[in-house]
Amino acid sequence: MPDDSDPANTLPVYVIGAGPGGLAVAAALREQGVRAVVLEKSDAVGASWRRHYERLRLHTTRRMSALPGLRIPRSSGRWVPRAQLVRYLEKYAEHHGLDIVTRVEVTRVERSPDGTGWLLRATGGRELTGRAVVVATGYNHTPRLPSWPGLASYGGELLHAGEYRNAGPYAGKDVLVVGAGNTGAEIAVDLVEGGAARVRLAVRTVPHIVRRSTLGWPAQANAVLVRRLPVRLVDRAAGALARLSVPDLSAKGLPRPETGLYSRVREGAIPVQDVGLIKAVREGRVEPVAAVESFEADKVVLADGSRITPEVVIAATGYRRALEDLLGHLDVLDERGRPVTHGGRTPEQARGLYFTGFTNPISGNLREMAIDARKIAKALSRRSRQGLSRRSR
Ligand SMILES: Cc1cc2nc3c(=O)[nH]c(=O)nc-3n(C[C@H](O)[C@H](O)[C@H](O)COP(=O)(O)OP(=O)(O)OC[C@H]3O[C@@H](n4cnc5c(N)ncnc54)[C@H](O)[C@@H]3O)c2cc1C
Questions:
Q1: CA–CA distance, 248 with 256 (Å, rounded to integer)
Q2: What pTM was computed for the model?
Q3: pLDDT at 385
């Protein structure tokens, strides 16, 4: 355990963000005897999960989604509902006695003037100095809308999926959902079940669709098993499994993807877990259409040249990491704005800066963040000990 009589160790480690990633790191640090303070811009832990659409459940299993040191209660079921995950995160913070300061947004991370630690600039003119910083501000930080031509003058109703709560406001309406990732697919099904008059799903790249579980065996368990196997081998195996377990929906406008499942994962596209899309497409209740190209007054122009006039457009077009303002000046982001390291590794040019939650692994983000939390805690506790032994020499 680090020695608190060492002045360097009396400074806390600051963790930015009280989502699952930040909470997991803070708990793992505490277990290693490292003082951690979590800074959260909203007024409570798990802010992202409080905002997600109501019907959302984890598509990773309860067991493989738990954070270090506390199981998700069995009563939450195998596929944990959103509200119960929020309750779990509240309980998690309480159980581990985490030091969390809410309503503090970190706006910039800099080296401390003496070069030994990190200076955080935060709302209210705060300046906080930490011995290390863990950035856990979330992969799904800021809604992303493509720069579609004509969007500015589009007169119809358009919202980002991040604003969607439930199907209530769309009952009886003609809705176009843009983007066939997990979120778009699930919102399309929710709309159908919630009484929308017509639901179309605009698809740019045909997704891989996998059953959430097959004969009781969860897709996530396959993902964990195959994670380190050669991409081509996994692509072939996944293709064979898909032909057995997922019907051919080509006639309904959703052909099988040409690129293999794992190749797509490597490009950043996680397969869609089926929570009703296959059935809805088969029954013609969700109609796949071509990708959105542009907007015209009250029309949406699709890639096949057709023009449609839905009453509402819901853009399930993803999110940005939005780390540039916070960290862009430190040369720790790649060309896609993602941190260059994660887990226990810290960038050579910014030692003491750690990241969690910015990978998008096929085996589940919560699982990965639990693993990264332990690695970060170990690395930081090792750094303290090394610092001590160097000073005592
Ligand atoms: C719809 C959806 C479903 C998902 N389902 C699953 C699933 O089933 N299984 C799975 O493993 N993963 C899932 N994920 C992926 C991932 O596990 C979650 O997004 C998870 O919440 C990520 O945790 P996080 O802590 O990295 O980020 P977040 O939960 O987004 O938390 C980040 C926190 O940081 C705060 N913050 C941001 N910027 C600042 C700042 N500058 N200063 C202070 N605070 C700040 C935010 O307010 C927020 O509370 C899902 C993601 C989405 C979007």
A1: 7
A2: 0.92
A3: 72
